[in-house]
Design brief:
The protein is of the alpha/beta class and 216 residues long. The protein is built from eleven helices and five strands, in the order αβαβααααβαβααβαα. The radius of gyration is 17 Å and the shape is globular.
Length: 216
């Protein structure tokens, strides 16, 4: 289905992928205001609009319709197992995102952002690697966020061991981001490290310059 693009939206799209807490959504909103483009926020749609499809997929595969117990997701598995499961689930979730994107029509490029828009999944849609960039936070910047931003350290679900769950989540996110970086570099897609030394406006300048050919 990835070759179906009735309105040419996928062909003209710009893509921001990368690690959690790298500022992808913030940078995308800034670029939308500056250049009058539409942004597709993967995380928002994946967590909300795709829930019915997620349940249907679980039922078809013989799993319970209900979400799994939070402890089995965040406390019991190792970060390595969590990262592997997350990466293995991205292709299906990407297909759902593409369905959303195919329905969007704009005279300007659609900017799609989110950690599930993986380089290996997006690359076959690109006519140039300049249509994509990968943003990843440094470990030091992520630790800073955990210290100063309450929402960065909050667990959305109740678990038996919140500290272990948080450590697992942070380690999983790092592993998933590292995989995206390796893949992007192998595909010739630019990687931009976010270390907190530049504010969001400046990062948006850099990303906007990267996409400049398509934003004129």
């Amino acid at each position: 289905m990835t070759n179906v693009d009735p309105f040419g939206t996928l062909k003209q799209a710009l893509w921001i992928c990368g690690g959690q807490w790298a500022g992808k959504s913030t940078v995308s909103r800034l670029l939308a205001r500056r250049h009058g483009i539409t942004v597709y926020h993967y995380d928002f749609h994946d967590a909300r609009a795709h829930q019915d499809r997620r349940i249907a997929h679980r039922v078809r595969n013989g799993s319970p319709a209900e979400d799994p117990d939070p402890d089995t997701v965040w406390v019991e598995p190792t970060p390595e197992r969590m990262a592997a499961d997350t990466i293995a689930g991205f292709p299906l979730r990407f297909e759902w995102a593409l369905d959303d994107l195919r329905a969007l029509v704009s005279g300007r490029p659609i900017l799609a952002e989110g950690w599930g828009l993986r380089p290996e999944l997006v690359a076959p849609l690109l006519d140039s690697p300049r249509r994509m960039i990968v943003l990843v936070p440094t470990d030091e910047f992520r630790e800073h966020q955990l210290r100063v931003l309450p929402r960065a350290a909050a667990m959305a679900q109740r678990v038996s061991d919140p500290e272990r769950a948080q450590r697992n989540r942070v380690a999983r996110d790092r592993l998933v981001a590292e995989d995206a970086v390796r893949t992007a570099k192998g595909l010739g897609i630019r990687v931009l490290e976010i270390d907190g030394s530049r504010d969001a406006e400046v990062v948006a300048d850099v990303v906007g310059e990267h996409f400049g050919l398509y934003l004129v």
